[in-house]
Amino acid sequence: MATYDEVLNQVQDLTPIEQLRLLEQLQAIAFQPVEVEGEDEVVSAAEIAASHAAWQDYLAGRDRGISSKELKLGKWKGFLPKRIDALEFERQLRREWDEQ
């Protein structure tokens, strides 16, 4: 089997039209949806690529994620019951996170 560098050199020898044709075929291969194991859900290659890019940004420090406050607001969509025990709320969130 040819190495990546060997294939790249071969591609560079193609005409621009042949390179575009190859690119279109590679995109068709690379962007096929993926069935999630054990689920009926199908995840598109674009979603997988976006997730991978976000993870790489996080690992590289370009995205620090969201704060726990933002997470709580997102989960409750800005609405919390009038009376809430903050410590119990945090414990509940941690239990939910542990279950996942």
Global geometry? elongated
Number of helices: 5
Spatial arrangement of strands, main beta sheet? 1-2
Order of helices and strands: HHEEHHH
In terms of per-residue confidence, which ranges show pLDDT below 50 for 5 or more consecutive residues?
none
Number of strands: 2
Classification by helices and strands: mainly alpha
Strand content: under 5%
Average predicted confidence as pLDDT: 79
Describe what this molecule looks like in 3D.
The structure is a single chain. The protein is mainly alpha-helical and 100 residues long. The chain has 3 domains: 30 residues; 34 residues; 35 residues. The protein is 62% helix and 4% strand. The protein has 5 helices and 2 strands; from the N terminus they run ααββααα. The chain has a two-stranded antiparallel sheet. Strand 1 and strand 2 form a beta hairpin. The mean pLDDT is 79.
Summary tags:
4% strand, single chain, two-stranded antiparallel ribbon, 3 domains, mainly alpha, 100 residues, 5 helices
What's a concise summary of this model?
By secondary structure, this protein is mainly alpha-helical. It contains 5 helices and 2 strands. It is elongated and about 70 Å long.
Topology:
Elements: H1 4-12, H2 16-30, E1 34-35, E2 42-43, H3 45-59, H4 68-76, H5 86-99
Antiparallel strand pairs: 1-2
